[in-house]
Write a structure and sequence with these properties.
alpha/beta, 3-stranded mixed β-sheet, 16 helices, CBS domain-containing protein
């Protein structure tokens, strides 16, 4: 494990981070779409409002704040919700509170002190924490190497804990302290993307890990969700929740013994899309049609079956306005319309999934994720561009950089099977 994780603390990663503005569960889906477009990792933390009034002198402690945290809402959650038959009337659905959309899980966020060692923060994220809530400081001068070694991983006591115990207060007088002044009720939110961005800046300190292949590191996750291209796209929303929030769309190769990836249905792909158009497509198209971004020339399924869709403003003079699906409207951009025939090679354009090979280095995968603002990269065989092996996400990268060298697996590791077999 690199010493850089012992010499740095969470506060070092929060420099320049904006103050977090709480997004409440009473806000509408429409508001959530705007907020997600400005977020990291394609999702936003959702909070309950304080049950107690803002009385003078009242300070909310970390436990109370943790209980108010509901969960993280991402773009795939919203598109899946809008794709429900009862939600396709856009005016009604966009005004629904996000409390009906977000999946409650308050273990995804944890409040930590700015003086928490980076290695401790990484361990939390490896255990499933996706956001770290860090108190903002009026003055922050960082932590010294000497301080981190002296305390050997012990957490700094925040103001509310130290003031509640005279013993701790007395003990703290004999300790060096951080050069900071806490600002109550002001926080910033640290994501796993922020951590990967930091790691890119200290690649030299992580040597030789950055140039080691992901297969040698043994971090290729084969337990991913998938759906076959010939199935309705809406089936993707019925897969069990996973991290990353992505479902691979697969089709069999010519020998029918392997599967290749032709696209994905994921939070990162839907991050800044037209949510209503994406929801309509998810509800009405096959998975292969959805990810290929085909226009209105399809042979495998007639558009007349579902293009005549009523929506606000669509009925005029007793007629129903047809709702045309365009790949561009959900973030895809093929150069021209194409006919879809499941099982043959098709143009994928921007809908092509982000992939790497088993021989790709850890540094290359990290750079791919950051440059595309993606939460994951799909892994294909070394001698193939699309035969899927697995996926690498934030969790796998954090595992790699904190793993002891002796734990690495041989580079000739074979990969058999694919995906999450339990797709019930």
């Amino acid at each position: 494990m690199a010493s850089v994780f012992l010499y740095h603390v969470v506060g070092d990663l929060t420099v320049g981070k904006p103050e977090m503005v709480e997004f409440y569960e009473t806000e509408t889906v429409e508001s959530a779409i705007r907020a997600i477009g400005e977020s990291t990792e394609c999702g936003i933390p959702v909070w309950r409002k304080r049950s107690t009034p803002n009385l003078p002198g009242f300070v909310e402690n970390s436990e109370m704040r943790q209980q108010r945290f509901v969960g993280i809402l991402n773009s795939l959650d919203i598109v899946a919700f809008l794709a429900k038959s009862e939600c396709l009337q856009e005016e009604k659905a966009m005004k629904i509170p996000v409390s009906e959309v977000v999946s409650p899980d308050n273990t995804l966020l944890k409040q930590v002190d700015p003086g928490t060692r980076l290695i401790d923060a990484l361990e939390m994220m490896k255990q499933g924490v996706r956001r770290l809530l860090v108190p903002r400081s009026v003055v922050w001068r960082g932590m010294s190497k000497r301080f981190s070694i002296l305390y050997n991983g012990k957490w700094l006591k925040n103001s509310e804990n130290s003031s509640s115990s005279s013993g701790l207060a007395a003990d703290s007088t004999n300790r060096p302290t951080t050069s900071m002044t806490s600002s109550r009720d002001k926080f910033c939110c640290l994501s796993r993307e922020d951590v990967i961005r930091f790691l890119i800046g200290v690649l030299g300190a992580l040597a030789p890990l950055p140039l080691t292949s992901i297969s040698t590191l043994g971090i290729i996750n084969q337990n991913y969700n998938f759906i076959e291209a010939s199935l309705p796209a809406i089936e993707a929303t019925r897969r069990p929740p996973c991290d990353p929030s992505a479902i691979a769309v697969l089709e069999q190769t010519e020998n029918e013994q392997q599967f290749k990836i032709i696209g994905e249905i994921s939070a990162s792909k839907l991050w800044k899309c037209d949510y209503l158009a994406a929801a309509w497509a998810l509800a009405n198209l096959y998975a292969g049609q959805f990810v290929m971004g085909v226009e209105d020339n399809m042979s495998s399924r007639s558009f007349s079956d579902f293009l005549q869709t009523s929506f606000p403003g669509g009925e005029q003079n007793g007629t129903t306005k047809a709702k045309k699906f365009s790949s561009r409207s959900i973030g895809f951009n093929p150069t021209s319309p194409t006919r879809l025939s499941i099982g043959r090679s098709m143009y994928r354009g921007r809908s092509a999934p982000l992939t790497c090979k088993t021989s790709s280095s850890l540094a290359a995968v990290m750079a791919q994720m950051l440059s595309h603002r993606a939460t994951h990269v799909w892994v294909t065989e070394a001698d193939s561009d699309d035969v899927l092996v697995g996926v690498v996400g934030y969790g796998e990268i954090l595992t790699a950089v904190t793993k002891q060298p002796s734990a690495f697996v041989p580079s000739n590791r074979s990969y058999e099977g694919f995906g999450n077999e339990n797709q019930s």
